[in-house]
């Protein structure tokens, strides 16, 4: 091994699974690796022993502390291939990692993983086929012997690796390919949260010249928000247009800055103004006799980089440049690895600096702290200098730490430094009230990498009840840990965060407006709004892009930066640059108690609010998917373009587009599950001239991530739940003037779950930290709390029925609530107050909405919109409302067919089937569309109660249907048209006695005719009981052997019209073949004991009646 500290070795160790050693060597790589005594020559076997010793120590430490090991070395880590690209990973001698490890231990290497499984051929007894052992089929529904079911998404690229024996799913019955398509993972809000930043990423085209490598990136000042990229033979400026709509393709303009040098490396840079900057370069050139030499030059560029001036040709190897705008001074820091040089330049025409000083140890960073003072740090070095008539040392602080990075907070005057010594990380704080003592604290996280300040003018209360200090400092580590520190009380950690999937955090930075925090590494970017919640609000993952777009294994310096207006951030590695738009979440949250907005089997005790924000809900869903390994079967960024049922083969044929690569794939499945829900196709208002509007235009479901609403005139159309969340959020932004156009009257209810506020004494919707801690530590207490939430929701179903006391009481309560909130604007109260019963339109609790309508920067407009022009909305009353941006919070096309062609039996399109009305059987099956199931389809939502319970219930029903298909050799299963008609007849009869039959505009109803197509005809509990026992006689079946053109050989000896009880097999069970669990029916968990002396008194039957 020539040099352990070089990036290829580090990457190799990461790929081979040697996390601990990789991290240690990474730290060694950062600073002057050639000076390390062990970094020049080492034998491969010694490397392996070093790695194994580190892992062994980690295991011993975990055992002693009763914790999990931080690093693992399992069978996967020893494989001689890369998890990223499949290439062989070898040391210089070409020996795979697992072989080296085996030789070092004197052990034999493990055999390579098997690619296929050999099965014994089953026998046929009495014409009934003996079922083989479970087959390996990656695209299958796996029903294990314990009843666990896995659904795989059969959209698989041909290049994907076949799972190994240990990883492959099995099929206990007939292999069934099941494809689930959807816009969500089972939850829906009317304003779509956008937490995945990948889809809108813009990649700067790579340099074809391998000699040009990006080593530094820097965004220009706010007057010139351009991205500067500098490095090896490279100094370019990139201008990337902002996207006014998600569908718009941004333009990229790139220009070279003119430098009077060739074959150079940019070592540092800093901006002076929007068109002036200074760079330091090291130029490789040759003298008169042909000898290679290096010249270090300091160059100022003006007029946007088109004019350059060499300040000095003997500036030294500069690693840091800092500009002082108050006195027009330029500070440069140089080091040769052993000593440091400090220069201050005050005149660009001078070839020598105005002031110079030298240090006995290397200097790594510097920062101006006043207009006449700056601080420098380095190896056991921390000094403050004063620039007056001369350059003097203001103070030198004793330290034994190597400080690598320094940051300064101008509001408080606090200086923070990050350092490392003996592989331990340290944080140093210098307070202005104690300017002679550098308070040093050992960090609890290994391998700290970066730090940043966020300036706050006052203490702010968070949604979880805690507070952010006036001055906040954050640190990050290579292990993905992010800590927020209150530097007014040094070393008090106020927040502990982790990056998405615990990915590396090499850089960390607050957005310039201080609202968001980003931590990033080559593999991922994680963003938090730490004032509101501890979970990330957005993330970006490299794995969602092909390697020709972003390859995290590329060598080079990694950098992170924010656009000056905080709307975009950039990451760069090697010759790769990605610009990522960052969304602003405007109030999107659930409007029912969060503890009812979760799966029954996965309680979350850590909801920060009774009405959790969308990013928190998305984080919960992602955690659930990862915990139960559902991510194995999910294909993100794949767009369904068409689905067609083939009657001859009894297969669904699906056309899929990979949005990351642009490739179109063809796939097929036995069962198709639509998880699109019924609120996903935006409904745009039909307004004359809307297409001529030249300002920003967006729908609440297709939010423009990059648009800055501050200091804008905004028109909001709509008064539904989306508008009610958006209007108060826009009203609170600086400088906004909001015009809300309200066509429909509506009830604005108090927050759902108000009784919980009263019972637990909540002052706000935030759940106090002490209560969340009790939820987490006392499962029984939290379970009782959840029961209370669910029972309250299920106990108000009578509010949806006409004439009930609960309905009358709700109407009186809502009336008083609205009147009180709008007492300063009674005209708005009269304009909003409806004549229909509460619930006819979706009940909309709107914390802050009614209050926002009374504010001076909100105009409440009820006059109908006549037309739109290039810059305004014109209403029927003759008024013109000038706006800069238009927000259409006008809901969705409820129960609509998907936007892609979906064709059923005999070529019937779903659009024709649902032309006049969307009809189903029990909300999940459609006559004429075999083996198709819908989740949250027509008549699937709920007027009161838990929607997530409905989703789980329908999911269980679908699983039962798939098991029947598998077990009984069914090729096609489709609901009878008569039963579909029966269900719709029942739906219409039920809703006649409900408030939903009142005259009102609602997405619940079929446009034009008024039938209720969005809601389940009953309560949540009614739906649960309905779905518990399927009526299989309501379906028609075609069996595999009845298909036209069935190949006899494919039936393995089973003839047509064979015994429908062939599933009985040969009289044996799989457990007998495996010779285990031969008396499972005596296991306590499977014994259903009757109650003595009267079995019918079983409490279970009283709670949940026995059904079929």
Tell me about this structure:
This protein is α+β, with helices and mostly antiparallel strands and 1108 residues long. Among the domains are: 7-105, no CATH class; 695-747 and 803-836 and 838-888, FAD/NAD(P)-binding domain (3-Layer(bba) Sandwich); 1055-1103, no CATH class. It has 18 helices and 59 strands. The strands form 18 sheets. It has a 5-stranded parallel β-sheet with strand order 46-55-47-48-51, covered by helices on one side. A 4-stranded antiparallel β-sheet has the order 8-41-40-39, with no helix packed on it. It has a 4-stranded antiparallel β-sheet with strand order 9-10-11-12, with no helix packed on it. Strand 4 and strand 5 (149-151) form a beta hairpin. Helix 1 runs antiparallel to helix 2 (19-30) and helix 14 (947-967) packs parallel to helix 16. The longest helix is centred in the first third of the chain and has 22 residues, at 44-65. The termini are far apart. Mean pLDDT is 78; it is low at 1-54, 71-176, 182-194, 457-467 and 1049-1055.
Shape: globular
Structural class: alpha+beta
- First CA to last CA: what distance? 71 Å
Q: pLDDT under 50 segments (min length 5)? A: 1-54, 71-176, 182-194, 457-467, 1049-1055
Q: Which CATH architecture of the domain at 695-747 and 803-836 and 838-888 would you pick?
A: 3-Layer(bba) Sandwich
Percent strand:
25-35%
Oligomer: single chain
Defining key terms:
5-stranded parallel sheet; disordered N terminus; 18% helix; 1108 residues; 4-stranded antiparallel sheet; 18 helices; FAD/NAD(P)-binding domain; globular; alpha+beta
């Amino acid at each position: 091994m020539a040099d352990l500290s070089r990036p290829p070795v580090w990457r190799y160790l990461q790929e081979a699974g040697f996390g601990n050693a990789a991290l240690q060597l990474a730290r060694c790589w950062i600073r002057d690796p050639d000076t390390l005594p062990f970094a020049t020559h080492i034998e491969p076997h010694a490397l392996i022993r070093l790695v194994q010793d580190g892992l062994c120590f980690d295991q011993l430490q975990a055992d002693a502390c009763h914790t999990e090991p931080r690093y693992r070395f399992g069978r996967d880590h020893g494989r001689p291939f890369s998890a990223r690209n499949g290439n062989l990973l070898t040391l210089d001698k070409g020996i795979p990692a697992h072989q080296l490890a085996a030789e070092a231990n004197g052990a034999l290497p493990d055999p390579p993983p098997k690619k296929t499984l050999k099965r014994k051929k089953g026998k046929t007894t009495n014409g009934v086929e003996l079922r083989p052992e479970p087959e390996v089929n990656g695209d299958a529904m796996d029903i294990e012997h314990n009843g666990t079911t896995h659904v795989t998404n059969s959209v698989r690229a041909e290049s994907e690796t076949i799972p190994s024996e240990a990883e492959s799913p099995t099929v206990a019955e007939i292999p069934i390919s099941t494809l689930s398509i959807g816009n969500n993972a089972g939850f829906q809000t009317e304003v779509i949260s956008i937490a995945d930043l990948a889809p809108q990423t813009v990649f700067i085209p790579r340099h074809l010249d391998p000699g040009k490598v990006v080593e530094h990136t820097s965004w220009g000042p706010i007057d010139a928000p351009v991205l500067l990229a500098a490095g090896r033979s490279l100094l370019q400026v990139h201008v990337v247009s902002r996207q006014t709509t998600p569908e718009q393709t941004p333009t990229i303009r790139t220009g070279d800055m003119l430098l009077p040098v060739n074959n150079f490396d940019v070592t540092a840079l800093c901006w002076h103004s929007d068109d002036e900057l200074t760079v330091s370069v090291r130029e490789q050139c040759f003298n008169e006799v042909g000898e290679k030499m290096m010249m270090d030059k300091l160059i100022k560029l003006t007029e946007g980089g088109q004019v350059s001036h060499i300040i000095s040709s003997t500036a030294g190897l500069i690693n840091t440049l800092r500009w002082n705008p108050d006195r027009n001074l330029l500070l440069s820091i140089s080091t040769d690895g052993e000593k440091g040089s400090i220069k201050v330049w005050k005149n660009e025409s001078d070839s020598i600096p105005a002031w110079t000083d030298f240090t006995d140890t290397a200097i790594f960073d510097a920062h101006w702290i006043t207009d006449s003072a700056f601080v420098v740090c380095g190896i056991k070095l921390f000094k403050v200098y004063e620039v007056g008539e001369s350059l003097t040392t203001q103070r030198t602080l004793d330290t034994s730490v190597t400080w690598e990075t320094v940051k300064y907070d101008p509001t408080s005057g606090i200086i923070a430094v990050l350092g490392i010594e003996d592989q331990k990380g340290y944080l140093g704080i210098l307070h202005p009230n104690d300017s002679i003592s550098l308070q040093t604290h050992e960090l609890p996280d290994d391998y700290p990498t970066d730090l940043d300040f966020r300036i706050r003018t006052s203490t702010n209360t968070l949604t979880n009840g805690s507070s952010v200090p006036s001055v906040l400092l954050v640190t990050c580590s290579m292990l993905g840990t992010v800590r927020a520190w209150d530097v007014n009380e040094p070393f008090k950690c106020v927040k502990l965060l982790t990056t998405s999937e615990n990915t590396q955090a090499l850089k960390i930075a607050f957005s310039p407006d201080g609202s968001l925090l980003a931590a990033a590494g080559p593999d991922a970017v994680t963003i938090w709004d730490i004032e509101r919640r501890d979970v990330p609000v957005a993330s970006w993952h490299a794995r969602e892009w092909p390697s020709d777009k972003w390859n995290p294994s590329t060598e080079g310096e990694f950098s992170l930066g924010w656009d000056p207006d905080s709307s975009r951030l950039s990451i760069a590695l090697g010759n790769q640059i990605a610009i990522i738009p960052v969304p602003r979440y405007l109030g999107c949250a659930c409007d029912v108690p969060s503890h009812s907005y979760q799966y029954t089997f996965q309680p979350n005790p850590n909801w920060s609010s009774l009405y959790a924000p969308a990013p928190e809900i998305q984080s919960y869903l992602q955690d659930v998917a990862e915990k139960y390994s559902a991510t194995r079967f999910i294909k993100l960024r794949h767009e369904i373009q068409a689905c067609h049922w083939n009657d001859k083969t009894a297969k669904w044929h699906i056309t899929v587009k990979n949005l990351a690569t642009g490739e179109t794939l063809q796939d097929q499945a036995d069962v198709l599950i639509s998880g699109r829900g019924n609120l996903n196709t935006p409904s745009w208002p039909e307004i004359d001239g809307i297409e001529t509007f030249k300002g920003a235009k967006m729908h609440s479901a297709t939010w423009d991530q990059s648009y800055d609403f501050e200091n804008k005139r905004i028109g909001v159309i709509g008064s539904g739940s989306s508008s009610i969340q958006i209007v108060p959020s826009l009203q609170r932004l600086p400088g906004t003037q909001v015009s809300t156009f309200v066509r429909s009257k509506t009830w604005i209810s108090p927050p759902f779950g108000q009784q919980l506020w009263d019972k637990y004494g909540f002052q706000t919707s935030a759940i106090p930290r002490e209560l969340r801690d009790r939820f987490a530590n006392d499962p029984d207490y939290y379970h009782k709390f959840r029961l209370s939430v669910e029972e309250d929701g299920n106990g108000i179903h009578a509010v949806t029925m006409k004439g009930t006391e609960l309905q009358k009481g709700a109407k009186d309560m809502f009336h008083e609530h609205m009147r009180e909130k709008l007492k300063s604007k009674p005209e708005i109260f009269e304009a909003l107050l409806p004549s229909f019963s509460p619930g006819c339109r979706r009940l909309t609790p709107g914390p802050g909405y009614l209050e926002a309508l009374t504010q001076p920067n909100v105009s409440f407009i009820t006059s109908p919109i006549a037309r739109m022009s290039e810059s305004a909305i014109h209403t029927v009353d003759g008024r013109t409302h000038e706006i800069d941006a238009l927000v259409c919070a006008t809901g969705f096309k409820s129960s609509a067919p998907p936007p892609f062609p979906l064709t059923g039996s005999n070529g019937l399109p779903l659009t024709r089937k649902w032309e006049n009305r969307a009809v189903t059987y029990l909300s999940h099956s459609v006559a004429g569309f075999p083996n198709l199931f819908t989740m949250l389809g027509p008549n699937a939502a709920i007027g009161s109660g838990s929607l997530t319970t409905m989703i789980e219930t329908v999911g269980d029903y679908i699983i039962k249907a798939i098991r029947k298909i598998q077990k009984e050799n069914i090729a096609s299963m489709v609901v009878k048209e008569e039963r579909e008609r029966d269900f719709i007849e029942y739906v219409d009869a039920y809703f006649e006695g409900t408030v939903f039959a009142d005259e009102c505009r609602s997405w619940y109803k079929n446009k034009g005719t008024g039938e209720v197509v969005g809601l389940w005809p009953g309560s949540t509990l009614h739906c649960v009981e309905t779905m518990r026992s399927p009526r299989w006689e309501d379906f028609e079946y075609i069996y595999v052997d009845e298909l036209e053109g069935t190949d006899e050989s494919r039936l393995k000896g089973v003839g047509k019209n064979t015994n429908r009880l062939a599933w009985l097999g040969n009289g044996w069970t799989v457990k007998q073949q495996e010779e285990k669990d031969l008396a499972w029916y005596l296991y306590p968990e499977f014994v259903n004991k009757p109650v003595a002396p009267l079995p019918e008194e079983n409490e279970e039957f009283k709670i949940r009646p026995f059904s079929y």
